[in-house]
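#data-curation
PF: Archiving a pair of folding outputs for the training set. Convention for this channel: one message per protein, sequence first, structure tokens after, nothing in between. First:
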Amino acid sequence: MSNKIKYGLKNVHYAVVTEVGGVVSYGVPVSVPGAVNLVLNAAGENVKFYADDTIYHEENTNSGYEGTLEMALIPDAFRCDVLGDEVDDNGAIIENKDTKVKNFALMFEFDGDAKKVRHVLYRVFPTRPNLESSTTTNTKEPKTETINISAKPAIDTGDVRARLKQDDTGYSTFFTSVYEKNAPTNAVALDAEHTKASGIDLVITYTTDATTHAIKDVLIDGLSIGGVNVTVDTSAKTVTISDTYLDTYGAGDYVITLIFSVGNAVNVPLEVKTAA
């Protein structure tokens, strides 16, 4: 059975790209429901060098892709994680002029693809979507939201995209972590929680397929913890964060990010609670 028609778009996910000290890592992929359409046009140019009255050398540069991603509604999580919007104490989503848009990996699959190929673009940069609406008429036509995107080569590897078929290694976990070329998979099984003033350090146990690895950095909500507040045991595959450091955080939800020397980064949801 051949691939002739791409019927639709499904299984769209995004994973925020983090760069720390020149090391690129990817957050845990987040599903984007309601994806409608994806258009990608190849970007680059044809370079010709003339000598001896002829084309002496010719090559095509690969600058990635440019296009649009159309969704039924851009999720609030995407607006906050990628577009940089913030949620205030009242639950309002705030867009600020100093907002910094983040790069993300875009993962997707085409509905009706006979081989069920899954795709990832490694470094995608979005523009802010337009704000549109119209008055109600005697017919109802669903409105969608569209963002312009550009997909560039990854900073560290130069890879633009990857595709996996059903029988390829990594296909079954494709939407669990961003696929990296010949890279191991890192994971954490459980979310984390800490009770303030408990005197108990937080121990996170992780798994990795790597034969040798290191933890390059540990972050909470994007800020490096560092120093004596973190202890890493690569033999036991544990990361310990001191209770005194966690006690400086107010009660609420945070995200711990483990950045590995090889393979994907891992985000661990953290709940900080006050003592009963």
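PF: Second:
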Amino acid sequence: MPRISLHSALVIFLAMGLIPPAAAAFAEAGAQLERVELPAIGGGKQPFLSSTAKVNAFVFFRADQERSLDALRQMAACEKALAGKSVHWVAVVSDSASPAEVKAMAAGAGIRMPVLVDQGDKLYEKLQIRLHPVVGLADGKGVLKALEAYRQLDYGDVIQTQIRFLLGEVDQAAVDHAVAPDASPLPGADPVKKAMRDVNMARTLIEIGQYEQAVKQAQRAMEQAPVPAVFGVLGTAYARLGRCAEAKRMLDQAQKFEPASAAIPAARALCKGK
């Protein structure tokens, strides 16, 4: 089935030379997942998968990452939209995460799903999760159907449509349209959306240590449209490269647009004293 999933996105990045081969691992759809119980942040244990729900949806996230917070907010909206449906929701964090930070993020995002702790990162290893956040979908038998990497635009719509497909409520054409909406017939239309795609790719490249490529991707976004998010991303990439004068200029601009962003002081710290 055609789908721009984590699988296909990473294959595209690899073909473009943006990700080294070691970073392009992923779990294939069709993998059988284990039915395990994991410690819950709120206490006790909870099942990772349900044997009675038609769809199992699980979100891997990081408690110190703004992208993860945005993904959780979108999943909270999905929970609400799909309330009463046969869907089992869980969120998953590494056992290295701070419980206090995890609880704060879950509360801030408004999710109702339990947050489970992946002890020893066994699930991360099983699914070969390397990027955050990621949403996985499995059927009632525990067979993995999709891993969807984060995208800032329409992420919740993509996940919700895929769940409805697994529930039998929509067809594959609806999924394909949600994942890759019809292109505008006007050349150069939607420059903001194009720029945000490049910003999101630049964020991914920073996360995997491809800082030079991240700069190029962010500069491409700047050419499309100077969206506010691009300044912080470009500043972070410059800071990671030690190009502190350029980083400071970008971060100063980012401060004007996103004064509450935690990424800005973190990037500035990389150039402290330089």
